[in-house]
Amino acid sequence: MSLSDLTYLLPELILLASAALVFLLDIVWIRRARAEATGVYPQARFLPYVALAGLAAALVGLIPSLGGTHQVATLLAVDPFSVFFKAFAICAVAIVTLTAVSYMPGRTRYGGEFYALLLVTGLAICLAVSASNLVMIYLSMEFLSITSYVLVGYIRNDRKSGEAAIKYFLFGASASAVMLYGMSLLYGATGTTDLGELAAAFSAKAPADLVWLGFPAIILLLAGFGFKASLVPFHQWAPDTYEGAPTPVTTFLSTASKATGFAILIRVFVVALGQMQGEWGALLMAVSMLTMTIGNLTALRQTNIKRLLAYSSIAQAGYILMGAAAISLNPGLTFSGINGVLIYLFAYLFTNAGAFAVIIAIEQATGKTDVKDYAGLVQRAPWLAGLLFIFLASLAGIPPTGGFMGKFFVFGAVVQRQLWILAAVGAVNSVVAAFYYLNVVRLMFFTPAEEVGPVRVAPSLQTALIVTAIVTLVLGLAPGPLIAWATNSVQLLALR
Amino acid sequence: MNSWILSVITFLPLLASILVLLPWARLFGWEKAREEFVIKRGSTLLSVVPLVLAAVLWITYDKTAGGFQFEVNVPWISALGINYHIAVDGLSIPMIFLTTLLTTLGLWYSSSTIKYRVREFFFLFSLLEMGMLGVFMSLDLVLFYFFWEVGLVPMYFLIGIWGQPKDRPQYSAIKFFLYTLAGSVFMLLAILGIYFNVGTFDMIKAAAAHPFAGDVLLSSLAFFAFFIAFAIKVPCWPFHTWLPDAHTAAPTAGSVILAGVLLKLGAYGIIRIILPIFPEAFKRYALVVVALGVISIIYGAFVSMAQWDLKRLIAYSSVSHMGYVLLGIGAAAFAIGTPAWVDASAMALNGAALQMFNHGIITGGLFFLVGMIYERVHLRDLKMFGGFSSKLPYYYGLFAVTAFASLGLPGLAGFWSEFFVFRGAFAIVSLWAAVGVLGVVLTAAYILWKIVQFVFLGEFDPHKIDHWTNVETGVVSHEPSDVAMFEKVTLWPLVAIMVFFGVYPTPILSFFNKAFTDLMTKLAGG
């Protein structure tokens, strides 16, 4: 391992150092507060900003990794694809940190560790999206999962939080085990766990040899990746976990965690199993149609806003998967399927984070998370209502928002491959989804408020709201830079 | 001037809507009533600018040269070849004028009738104007789609917030939105299909490149994807069921814009997109379009006749009147490839486009008139009306002129559009046109019988309605108050246009004629 390898690992190292720093500062300040016998230590409010500074530094640390593909430390691949997802993860953790600043203090004593854990989870994602070896993929996904379990169950005296964590853990453990079995099948077939060597082995062997071992492996791997990306039928954990977890953690799960699932899915299927694109393409098509439909139909009946957004994010995973099902890697194409997934995920990050930020604001002000508590929001907090409308419109795919651009690219990839049934199912689902998104809008704008009183929003949350809203609109009006970045990021190590 | 006039027309309403949102009361220390006054009058004043510019467009458009003028074509999303490509021709300019006129009149009328949530109303109304104007100007398919969808959202809010509870505003709003969205999503797929077939999103280049030429399945799919999206908007039977609810529930100015402009977006889309880009597919299914148009005419007229709610009656009459537009367009499409029918098809298209304009003016006027009576008595039940001619003579005069224009009385604008549609359609699809003429009789029936007779003729019974609100003072009394000044200002421009274009339709017909003769010579001449 040479010095240049270390520069490629700068983001991970910086994240690790920041997490350690936050942990240390947390301990130092607790000790000092106990020594002064005050119990509460006011310096704790600096910890999130230390975390944010670390994240900014990690973002800068991505610069040496730009351009070209490199194999780092045998197990990791630093290529534009992984750089995209690392930047994605850092942005996601930053937004979640901002939204948690006002949310966590009242609910738990262990304030500082939360931000350190978030940083560590970000580190896990950075490792997972650049892993180029099946074992590394498994390890980093477990790393991500375990830290996520802790984050979900973070609020110790909230029974729902604990229940959510247990459900998430049990489901995740089973999914990982199944995925590992799939990986073992691939190892058994080829004698290697490196993605590049797997691809070489698959292209060397005759097709009949591949399918009987490759297809079961694909299905089993999909269990693990689908769990992270909340695809049907591996989605059952999502509603309870999203509802029970602290809302900033829900934001994180629905954006960054889901994106990791997609990143790994694309990397493994496209790089290692590229020969079997016909098979996994068809499978992904079926899963996508199921996911969209079940996610949307179940969301129609939800009365809790966090559960509603949970099912909505299951359906959104279905739309994103449409892009993965319609991958075309011919050079020079504007719609490669992968760039659709990237654009959609990026726009979805800001849209969903913004929507959850509004939910956090309402939850902080009123303590309630039922959909009917949003009645008449336009009278109590007109800007919050307007912002939530923008985010819901983006989720529904109405121009001029980033969500529409994501849908445009994903549908474009599907139409390019002439997958008419998938396109039709996606179109119908978009209309069905509009109903429950507009239901919230209807309550906010058309129905009178039951209690009238201002809704105070903390400054950190205001910052998060403004940033996510501006990015959502900018991505819809001037998507050129994002399109260029996403199209350029369709370069994966060892891709043939 | 060429390069900025269209952008100013489209985006000045956006600026107006953003200005409305600013917290003027807090900035200047005004109280609420003064702030509302500034918002109302300021919005109306700002909307006069696009109207004046639209008139400038009308006057300075070079009719002899024809084609697209005032063109702007700059890259927007260069990775996909999507450009900000806008221009106007003989079809769009009258539509743009119609939009700006109805918006200004709607804002003026609403300034005196909208009493609550004023800021949101004027914000949404100006935003809606931007969406509609953008659709009429776009020459890029994705830009068209953008403006199309942007126009949906403000209308949804307008129907839902200011609708009266007994008209089920929330139900009507979501029905309108989902129905139109369903059509648009499939239109998006067809737009992407065009891109993958000919490599461009530009309407002019796509028309020159003939996407899916020779492929029956794909061209039919693309045709129907576009046609159904536009048919929902027109609205064409059987995709019209959103319209009565949406029109009845919307506030007066909202109904005027919905009937006057939003319905035209669908017909405009058919003429602008489907006719040049998919001529073979359109010819293949032209009789379907003609049939649906004739069914809309007859069905709409019969259902109008059965209504007892005045606003719902006029809403259904829109279905019937837009049927003439579809008949004209369908007949012209059937004429594609037959050189003998070039003149007839151009005439049918002239009639269809003229009907679009006239219907906007006339039905806009009708909805304003219904709004006026609703403001006075807070009900629209025809059984409770009667004998208003003696108590509200000015109102009767205005209503009679508008109603006669609606039924196509010669001397008023409505006559020429129906005449040209039938004149053109008879030569091409004689049987269908003959059936369609029945619609004229039925229209006369429901207008004269249901509207004029039930509302105005007969004895005025003071026991039926004894509480009349004075729209200017808000005082409730037993005596009706006739048309107020602000209502006169709203209606006279429309009535003047109806009379002027009824006596002398050449200024507007010459606009359409050049555009459509060129188009049909290219298409019908083969």
Structure summary:
Chain A is an all-alpha fold and 496 residues long. Chain A has helices spanning 3-8, 10-35, 47-61, 80-103, 111-130, 134-152, 159-190, 195-204, 207-229, 237-244, 247-272, 277-299, 305-325, 338-366, 377-380, 382-396, 402-416, 420-446, 459-477, 480-488; strands at 70-72, 76-78. Chain B has a domain at 306-526.
Structure in words:
The complex is a heterodimer of chains A (496) and B (526). In chain A, helix 2 packs antiparallel against helix 3 (47-61), helix 5 (111-130) packs antiparallel against helix 6 and helix 11 runs parallel beside helix 13. Chain A has one domain. Chain A is built from 20 helices and 2 strands. Chain A has a two-stranded antiparallel ribbon. Chain A is mainly α. The relative contact order of chain A is 0.10. In chain A, a hairpin with a 3-residue loop joins strand 1 (70-72) and strand 2. The model of chain A has no long low-confidence stretch (mean pLDDT 89). Chain B is mainly α and 526 residues long. Chain B has a domain at 306-526. Helix content of chain B is 75%, strand content 4%. Chain B has helices at residues 5-21, 24-28, 32-60, 92-113, 118-137, 141-162, 169-198, 203-209, 216-233, 242-249, 252-277, 279-284, 286-306, 310-334, 342-377, 388-391, 393-407, 413-428, 430-456, 485-503, 506-524, and strands at residues 69-77, 82-88, 468-469, 476-477. A two-stranded antiparallel sheet of chain B has the order 1-2. In chain B, strands 3-4 form a two-stranded antiparallel ribbon. Chain B is globular and about 70 Å long. The two termini of chain B are 37 Å apart. The mean pLDDT of chain B is 91. Classes of the chains: A mainly alpha (496), B mainly alpha (526). Chain A binds chain B through residues 334, 378, 393, 398-400, 404, 408, 411-412, 415-416, 420, 423-424, 427-428, 430-431, 434-435, 438-439, 442, 445-446, 479-480, 483-484, 487, and chain B through 77-80, 120, 142, 145-146, 149-150, 152-153, 156-157, 160-161, 169-170, 173-174, 177-178, 181-182, 185-186, 188-189, 192-193, 195-196, 221.
